[in-house]
Each structure stands twice: as structure tokens, then as C-alpha cells.
Amino acid sequence: GTPVAVLAGIGAAARRGVVIKGGEALEALGAVDVLFLDKTGTLTSGRPEITDVVLIEGGGRTSERKRASDAGRPDDAAEAGGTAPASEAKAIEDILSLAASAERYSEHPLAQAVVEAARRRGLSPAEPETFEALPGRGVRARVQGRLVAVGSPKWIMEEVAAHSVDLPPELEHLLGAGKTPLAVAVDGRLRAVLAAQDRLRPEVLEALSELQAFGIEEIVMLTGDHVAAARALADRLWAAGLKIEVRAGLLPADKQRTVKAYQDRGRRVAFVGDGVNDAPALAQADVGIAMGEAGTAIAAESAHVVLLRDDFRLIAEAFRLVRRTVRVIK
Ligand code: ADP
Ligand code: MG
């Protein structure tokens, strides 16, 4: 049978919002020495906003940059830069509408940002005729007879938009600011790059230093996002004196392979994630930890530990409780 101390530990954790699925998971948590963290929705709030829309039209480009403080004002499209002619504002709306239609049925935080950006402008995106999500890449949908794809620039450039096109110079600036670039293709042509801005969860710095103090030797960020966005976030953690390694541009299978490679070297691995893209790594890890309310059901199902509140501090709480319980058993 399960030792009483383990049952008591699981009960105490549950009362604090940490569901540990059994004694094995609890004991595995006690042995963890490497912690892998997903970025979007785990280290960040998972509520990104679209801050920029850069149109790419027949080689020429127009761009609109919104100041964060204006976000939400219906007239900001016309105001931004003060130079965008009405036809360009219309083109931006058309692209946002198509992108929002394509994203409508995705549960990804970036999808919600796109849908929200369209809603804020009072647009009413059409119902998509078909929809397909490709975890770690983006979405594909048929909207009013057109094939719309929204996703990572790498995926769009390599697999969707077969024509060669220069990425807009504005992209450098957006990447430098740590924003996540999203490419939008319509009928196989790159039409726009959107930039999404997310926020580091405020509780992360303290929780990570506590985890390091618990003897977790290595903390590694694993993300499907662009390396520049990943580094900009890591900069904040490094500046606070935390040791964290960054691996970016990973597909769901790459995250899983990374976890497995560490296990093959005898490491005990915990992986924290929230999305469908994290499911393979969550299942592979010695302890998969699914994050918060915003997390997907698939993540929760693949995980060994589920955090019931959308609060990064619960990760440290889980380790704290488990170490206490394991001490009692030994
Ligand atoms: P993370 O590992 O940071 O949680 P994901 O693996 O979910 O990120 O996504 C990796 C990249 O794939 C994103 O940065 C984005 O470029 C693209 N992507 C994934 N899903 C979507 C989506 N629904 N809409 C747009 N882009 C997406
Ligand atoms: Mg995520």
C-alpha cells in the first residue's frame, strides 16, 4: 500500500492547489535535479498582445506600430505614425480579420491575442470553413475560400509560402524588443508579420531562486518561439542573478527529445508546460507538471502533477511540500 506519509503529502498538496497523481509522482518529484520550463504561458503570463502589424505587399511594405498605451482605442490605426493612408488601414484590417478567423478555434495564447486584436478594432472575422492546428508551428484554415496560415516565420517561410521574399527590416527591431513574430500567409503568399508581446510572470524570479536553493542544479527554458524572444526574456532572469539556459525554436518532438537526452545521462527531469505543444515532453519527463487554469486539457492529461491555479509559485510549493514528505518517509 501507499505509505501514510505519502497520502498525507498528496492531500496537503491538493489543498494548496497542487494535484499530484499518486505516490510515484511524489517520489519522483523529490529526486528531480533538472527543471525544464516552457516559455509561453509558463514563464510568461500567456496573455500576449499584438502590438505591431507589418504588411508585406508585392515587395512594398507598410507598417503600423501601436504604442502599448493606445492599445484598445478604436482610432489608433489611423493615428499610428499619422501617415497610413486609408487603403493601408483597410489592408491591415483585412489581414487581421483573416488571421483572427484562422485562429478562432486554436486554444494557443497567441491565437487569443490575434482574435483580441481583431475584436478591439470592431472587426467581425468570418467563420472558418476548415481549421487545423499544428502544435509548435501555427494554424491553417480555409476562410471564405482562401487558405490562411498563421504561425512561426520559420514554418511559414519553409513550408507554406514557397516563394522567396525578404522578411521586412522591421522584423529585426521587433525581435530586438523581444517580441514574438507571427507570419500570416494567404493562398501561399506571405502577407504580413504580426508581433506579439507577452509579460514575464511577476512571481517567476522569486520562485526560481527558491527552486535553485532546493538543490535543483539546472534550469533550462525550452521554447518553440524565436531565439531572440527567448533571450530577451532570459535577460531579465540573468539580470536577477538566476542561472537559466535557453533552447529556442523547438518543435514539440524536440522538447521531448531534449528531456530524453538528459534522462539518458541519468538525470531526473521535471518539465513544466501548459500547451498541447508540451504534451510529449510532459509525458516523457520523470515529472510532467501542467500549469494553471489557462493550460490545456491535453497538457493536464499528459502530466503527473497539475497546478490548479495559474500561479508559478505553486511549482516551488510542490517541491517544498514533497521534500518535506520525502524526509518524513526516510
Ligand atoms: P512555446 O514553446 O513558447 O510555448 P509553441 O511551441 O506553442 O511555443 O509555439 C511555437 C511557435 O509556433 C510560436 O512562437 C508561434 O510562432 C508558432 N505558433 C504555435 N501555435 C500558434 C498559433 N495558434 N498561432 C500562431 N502561431 C503559433
Ligand atoms: Mg506554452
TrEMBL record:
Residues 62-76 have a biased composition (Basic and acidic residues). It is found in: Cell membrane. Residues 61-86 are annotated as: Disordered. It comes from the Bacteria. Belongs to the cation transport ATPase (P-type) (TC 3.A.3) family. Type IB subfamily. Involved in copper export. This is Cd(2+)-exporting ATPase. It comes from Hydrogenibacillus schlegelii.
